[in-house]
Design brief:
single chain, 15 helices, mainly alpha
Length: 324
């Protein structure tokens, strides 16, 4: 593996939006809409995170945090070349976890993984041999390029370089976690995604403080009406000055500092803006109920319908692959 992202195979395998639209054509031909395809992807992204968390709790093993994020990227990249109607994602998401655990040096036993999958998503009718076959298929489709460049590492370096880690770190980390519910990790380098998370964190912080300032001013006005005129005016003026000073330091000054720092970087700010738009759209859609998440039963019904007889448990994934 190259220590430099730009010299690695991952840099040369960045997908285009056109490539995303051209993927899973068989699924569309069998009746799945674009919204349903995205719903299935989000469903299994969430399933990966829940599976890793609950497996860790049940078996008390030290599964690294990056296992879930690595498995998610494997899953989404695998389905750039494959379709839900030909390769069952109910098997492949577990295969991605199994492979990611090895790569991230948190090895789990295939037998334990299969036993847990049967209780996590019943009915899950696959055997250990199917899981091992799935692992090989995933590795082949990834061209055995398994070690990812983590955006979390990029985020830590960027926050340290900007000096904004204390102010924006937790918020940026949360946005980075949310980014795995989208395809941005197939479209952009990790440092670009990390920068977008920092920008979103700063914007959220500024918006929150603006709302708090407006609420404070409203409360001050009501409080001033119930006091003596002079006392109320003095207290309101003092509180407004204190609130304005806090706003200047924590929001306006922070945004100005962030802007000047971003300009100093040798980075494609247009690409950063694209990631910001993708994440903002995803979060807005979730908040407004635009793309409802699938439950387990709904996801199974969709997959059974699109797969037909090919969904029978025990089907080896190598038999159902989409040709190169």
């Amino acid at each position: 593996m190259s220590a430099n992202y730009w010299e690695s195979k991952w840099a040369r395998s960045i997908a285009s939006r056109e490539r995303l639209l051209d993927s899973q054509l068989d699924d569309r031909a069998r009746g799945l809409t674009e919204e349903q395809i995205q719903q299935i992807k989000v469903h299994f992204t969430t399933s990966i995170c829940q599976f890793v968390k609950k497996y860790k709790e049940k078996y008390r093993v030290d599964l690294r945090r990056r296992v879930a994020s690595t498995a998610t990227v494997y899953f989404r990249r695998f389905y750039l070349r494959n379709c839900f109607c030909r390769v069952d994602p109910r098997l492949m998401f577990v295969g991605c976890i199994y492979l990611a655990a090895k790569v991230e040096e948190s090895v789990v036993h295939a037998k334990h993984l299969v036993m847990f999958a049967r209780t996590f998503r019943p009915p899950w009718g696959y055997e250990v041999k199917h899981l091992l076959d799935a692992e090989m298929v995933i590795m082949e489709d990834l061209n055995f390029n398994l070690v990812l460049f983590s955006p979390y590492r990029s985020l830590q370096a960027l926050l340290r370089d900007s000096g904004l880690g204390e102010a924006l770190g937790p918020r940026a980390w949360a946005f980075l976690n949310d980014s795995y519910h989208t395809d941005v990790h197939l479209l952009h380098p990790p440092h670009v995604i990390a920068l977008a998370a920092v920008q979103l964190a700063a914007a959220e912080m500024a918006q929150q403080q603006q709302q708090e300032g407006e609420q404070q001013q409203t409360g001050q006005g009501r409080q001033g009406q119930g006091q003596g005129k002079l006392e109320g005016q003095q207290q309101q003026q003092q509180q407004q000055q204190a609130g304005q000073q806090g706003h200047d330091v924590s929001a306006e000054a922070l945004l100005d500092r962030l802007s000047r720092w971003l300009v100093s970087l040798d980075v494609d700010l247009g690409a950063v803006a694209d990631v910001v738009v993708d994440l903002t759209d995803m979060l807005a859609s979730c908040a407004l109920g635009g793309v409802p998440q699938l439950g387990v039963d709904a996801a199974n019904r969709l997959l059974d319908a699109v797969q037909g007889a090919a969904a029978a448990p025990g089907l080896a994934p190598a038999q159902a692959r989409t040709p190169g």
